[in-house]
Amino acid sequence: MAEEKSLSVEEIKKKREEFLMPAYLTYFKEPVHIVRGEMQYLYDDEGKKYLDAFSSVVTISVGHCHPDIIPEVQKQTAALQHITTLYYTESLVKLAEKLASIMPGDLQKSFFTNSGTEATEMSGVIAKNYTKRHEFIALRHAFHGRTLLSMTLSGQSLWRHSLPYVFGVNQAPAAYCYRCPMGLKYPACDMRCAYAVEEIIKYSTSGKIAGMIAEPIMGFGGVITPPKEYFKIIQELVHKYGGLLIIDEVQTGFGRTGEKWFGIEQWDVVPDIINMAKGMGNGIPIGGVTTTPEIAESHRNLIHFSTYGGNPVSTTQARLVIETIEKYDYRTNAKVVGGYLKEKFIELQEKHKIIGEVRGMGLMLGIELVRDKKTKEPAAKEMIALMDLCKDRGLFIGKGAMAGNVIRIKPPLCITRDDADFIVRILDETLGLVEKESGIIDRNFYNSRTARISAKQQ
Ligand SMILES: Cc1ncc(COP(=O)(O)O)c(C=O)c1O
């Protein structure tokens, strides 16, 4: 077959406008056409290299097209690409067994889906069926997916498009210490935001909840990282009122927070259900839930079927992702390089007025940008400018929070100290540029002479 010439950025832009729903978001004023990925790096159609410090939205856990994974998955694709879970396959049980070996506590039984959204849905069904109740508590700022239930559980108007919402969901304040919803300061606050969950259960529900869902560290919410006491209090309250604690590890899962496999382990809590996706598949569509044998048993009366959930190709890849994290000790790398990065970001905070707070763990880090450290006015326009400036210099960063003013640094777990130094150097330079020009952040900013000259020098 003759090799086809790839489409130009302009041609893709035209086709997107003509054939795609306008709901698709894109990053950057001048979008990039990515054609290749290799571990922590991406390459565009002109061969320019980028460090992917956002892991293509926290999805590439071990590295793009990891050489230990792709050949094995190619073999599986050639041997058997699809069969449903109605038939026996080795790959399905091998993944489930491997997962059980890394899960905290007695979480052992899994059900696989195609995405994180479906994992959210599935965990809701399990909790309702087990408790024979239907009410849920979720957190403000959270994100759990794009179906009716998962949008209702999400706590940002930005991601809640579907009216009317599901009945029986109540939102609790997040443990967002930098902008404390209770107007208090940690630790003098005595964890009032966590105890607010009890008030909500008592006054806004029937008092009989099916469960509560939470991310250990919020992803889209802007790397909101609760204090160390938080999840123990939450778990106690949820159990006191008869509900299940569902932990959404779609972003924090599989070593990202450093050392531990799952984010919730950093709080020394074993939840009733863990939801997962993204990093689990390192780029292949797969999600899932894992729960205890007892909760799983209550589900024997409910039959589920998913055409692609648990298919041979994605389950093979997900098992290899876990084995690859083990083989290269990427969990330790996340802790060590992540710790180093966080230290460097704190140094940047001292230097740059625009940095309000540095937070997160391992390679799940956030830098909140503010126009003024006293008023904490979110630096949202500056964030947009920063992303473009970083991109021009070969660095992809992510953006989060309701106001879009939090830099999200969540690179593949294989990044090196040199990569970390590159991230710090580029952020230092681009933050400086943004600060300098922040009074005039408008269309002219992108064309500013300083920005252009500086990009050329990279
Ligand atoms: C914490 C969390 N839960 C659920 C989802 C939904 O996952 P998916 O996009 O695979 O449906 C996401 C997606 O970003 C997420 O970050």
Short description:
With 458 residues, this protein is of the alpha/beta class.
Structural class, please?
alpha/beta
Instruction: Note the beta-strand portion.
Output: 15-25%
Count helical runs. 15
CATH class of the largest domain: Alpha Beta
Q: Could you give the order of strands across the largest sheet? A: 4-10-9-8-7-5-6
Q: What is the number of domains?
A: 2
> Quick one: how many beta strands?
15
The gyration radius over C-alpha positions equals 22 Å
Under the CATH scheme, the architecture of the largest domain is 3-Layer(aba) Sandwich
Ligand set: pyridoxal-5'-phosphate
Principal-axis shape equals globular
Residue ranges: pLDDT <50 for 5 or more in a row? 440-458
CATH superfamily of the largest domain: Type I PLP-dependent aspartate aminotransferase-like (Major domain)
Helix content: 25-40%
For the biggest sheet, the summary is: 7 strands, mixed
How far apart are the first and last residues' alpha carbons, in Å?
38 Å
CATH topology value of the largest domain: Aspartate Aminotransferase, domain 2
> Strand-and-helix sequence, N→C?
HEEEHHHEHEHEHEHEEEHHHEEHEEEHHH
| Mean of all residue-level pLDDT scores | 94
